[in-house]
Fold:
Amino acid sequence: MKSSYYNLIIILLIAATSSSSFSSSSSTASSWTDLVDRTCKLTPFYDLCISTLLNDPQSPSADTHGLAAIIASDLLQSANNTLSSIQEMISRSPPDPESEQPLAYCAEVYIPIVKYSLPQSIEALEKGRYGFAVYGIADAEKGVQACEKRVEGAGGLDAVKSWNEAVREMADVALSIIKVLQGN
Ligand SMILES: *[C@@H]1O[C@H](CO)[C@@H](O)[C@H](O)[C@H]1NC(C)=O
Structure:
């Protein structure tokens, strides 16, 4: 009992004296975690923000600008995946007028989002032109909302509804982080 108590004190002393030699690497990691945490708290979807940034291999060296770039590129990927999936549904499903028209409409809406709005927004972000970056993402959100309206009443399109929601949430996260950059 007594010896384990002394062992604990020795371990704590060693930890206290040696921690300074690790401080440079651990403070880099913790300041990055702090930045991610602080930034994600300013967005409406904290969990989505955190998990996206933690899953990105580039994250540890990123500043707020880098975090916005990661989210924006993830947003483009998410929109692109949605478009591919919608196109797949169109080509795979036998013509069902109830879902065919909303799907075709949504594909038409997503094509310019993936081809122009979001890539242009990412480019603007890279150049520090935050107003343009916001414009592209807001434009994409408008398209997603139009698709949402169209699939709202249609049956059998729950998957599209959840993809739309995921894209819109990521867009909201991106807009919140760009707002932080605009305020700096
Ligand atoms: C979208 O995904 C397709 C593959 O499904 C890929 O060929 C294309 O480059 C992607 N576009 C963008 C803008 O990422």
Summary: The pocket of 2-acetamido-2-deoxy-beta-D-glucopyranose is lined by residues 76, 80, 84, 114 (CB under 6 Å). The chain has a mean pLDDT of 86. DSSP finds six helices and no strands in the chain. The helical segments are 2-41, 46-54, 64-92, 97-126, 130-152, 158-183.
